[in-house]
Write a structure and sequence with these properties.
By secondary structure, the chain is of the alpha+beta class. It is built from five helices and 21 strands.
Length: 350
C-alpha cells in the first residue's frame, strides 16, 4: 500500500510531464512562426557589422604640417640679426622665424623651435612686444640674454616662461668670436627642454596643404620687403622647394653651412609704434609691433604669391590667413619665415 508521500509524488510526475510537453509545443510553434531573414538583410547586417570604422587622420605637427606633433616644449629664442651676429647658429632648424623691428631701424629674429632642439646663437635681449607675439603659441618658454627697462616685467606678467641668462638661467655659454666680443652667447635648447614644463606645440591658426586649388595666385620667385630700415629678401629655390633668405645679394647660411630656407614666407603688415619705456644706449626707443587685430598679408609658397588678410582677435588666439574671397590660405608643409613689416611698406614679389 502506497504511503501518502508516495501518492503525492506519483501525482506530480504526470503534471510535470504535461507542463513540459506544453512548453515544447510552444517553443516549436514559435520557431515555425519566426520568418527567415532575407538574403539581402542578412548580407547587409553582416556587411555593416564587419566594416571597420573609418580611421581618424594621424595628428601632425601644427607648426609645420610635417610629421607627428613634437612631444617636447616649444621654445622661442631672441637671436641677433646684425652683421656681427652672422652666421647664426641653429636657426636653420627652427620651425618658424620672425623678422621683427627692434630699435634704430635694426632687426632681430624670434626663432621658434618645436621639432628640433639644437644649440642656438647668438642670443640677445627680449623686447616689450615679444610676449604679445608669442602668446598665440600658449604659455611657452622665451629664451633671451636679458631685457631692458620694462621688457622683463612685461614678460613676467604675460605668463610666458622666461629663460633669461641675466637671471642666471643655466645652459648659456659664451664662445670666442672675432666678429664680436659680446654677440657671442649660445644656448643648448635640448637641455632647456628637459628642464621646463611649458606646452608642446599647438595650432597657431595656420593650416597646411600641398595644393593651392581654388585660390588666385601668381608667380613670385623673388621677394623684397623691408623691416625697419633693413631690406629683407627671399629667393625661391625650386630644387629645395623652399625660399632662401638673402642679404645684400648673398644667400644666408647658418654656422653649419646649411642654407637658411623655409617652405613659406608670410609678409604681415602691422601697426608698429615707438615704445619709449624701453630705449637703447643711444636713446632709440624699442619699436612695439602690434600683432592682434587685422591687416594686409601676402603669403608666398611654391614660388607663388597669394594676397589677403591676417586676423588675430586676442593674444591667446592664433593668426588666420584668408584671401580676398574669405578662403583660408594654406601654407605649404614645412617651415615659415614671417616678416613683420609696417603698414606703409611695399613688398615686391615677381
Amino acid at each position: 500500500m502506497a504511503t501518502p508521500a508516495l501518492r503525492r509524488r506519483s501525482l506530480l510526475i504526470p503534471a510535470c510531464a504535461a507542463v513540459l510537453a506544453t512548453s515544447l509545443v510552444a517553443c516549436t510553434h514559435h520557431k515555425k512562426a519566426a520568418a527567415p531573414a532575407s538574403p539581402s538583410s542578412s548580407s547587409s547586417s553582416s556587411s555593416s557589422s564587419s566594416s571597420p570604422a573609418p580611421k581618424k587622420p594621424a595628428p601632425v605637427n601644427p607648426l609645420t604640417g610635417v610629421g607627428a606633433p613634437p612631444k617636447t616644449p616649444v621654445i622661442a629664442v631672441k637671436i641677433d640679426d646684425t652683421p656681427p651676429g652672422r652666421p647664426q647658429v641653429g636657426v636653420d632648424k627652427a620651425d618658424v622665424i620672425y623678422v621683427e623691428e627692434a630699435e634704430g631701424g635694426l632687426t632681430r629674429l624670434v626663432a621658434v623651435f618645436g621639432t628640433n632642439k639644437p644649440v642656438v646663437g647668438y642670443v640677445r635681449s627680449t623686447r616689450p612686444s615679444d610676449p604679445d607675439l608669442l602668446l598665440q603659441y600658449g604659455k611657452i618658454t622665451l629664451a633671451a640674454s636679458g631685457g631692458g627697462h620694462d621688457a622683463l616685467p612685461l614678460l613676467d606678467k604675460s605668463g610666458l616662461r622666461g629663460w633669461i641668462m641675466d637671471r642666471a638661467a643655466p645652459y648659456y655659454y659664451r664662445v670666442y668670436r672675432p666678429q664680436s666680443t659680446y654677440i657671442n652667447v649660445e644656448l643648448n635648447l635640448a637641455k632647456v627642454a628637459a628642464n621646463v614644463h611649458t606646452p608642446a606645440p599647438r595650432s597657431i591658426g595656420w593650416t597646411f596643404s600641398r595644393s593651392l586649388t581654388g585660390l588666385t595666385s601668381w608667380k613670385a620667385p623673388d621677394i623684397v620687403t623691408r623691416v625697419g630700415s633693413q631690406t629683407v629678401e627671399f629667393r625661391w629655390y625650386p630644387s629645395l622647394h623652399k625660399y632662401v633668405r638673402y642679404i645684400d645679394g648673398v644667400a644666408q647660411r647658418a654656422a653649419d653651412g646649411k642654407l637658411i630656407a623655409m617652405a613659406n614666407v608670410i609678409v604681415q603688415k602691422c601697426r608698429i609704434v615707438p615704445h619709449p619705456q624701453d630705449t637703447d644706449v643711444n636713446g632709440n626707443p624699442s619699436q612695439f609691433t602690434i600683432t592682434t587685430g587685422t591687416g594686409v598679408v601676402s603669403v608666398f609658397r611654391d614660388g607663388r604669391r597669394i594676397d589677403g588678410t591676417w586676423t588675430r582677435h586676442r593674444l591667446a588666439q592664433g593668426t588666420t590667413l584668408t584671401d580676398a574671397h574669405g578662403h583660408v590660405i594654406p601654407l605649404s608643409p614645412g617651415g615659415t619665415f614671417v616678416a613683420l613689416v609696417r603698414t606703409s611698406v611695399h613688398t615686391t614679389g615677381h
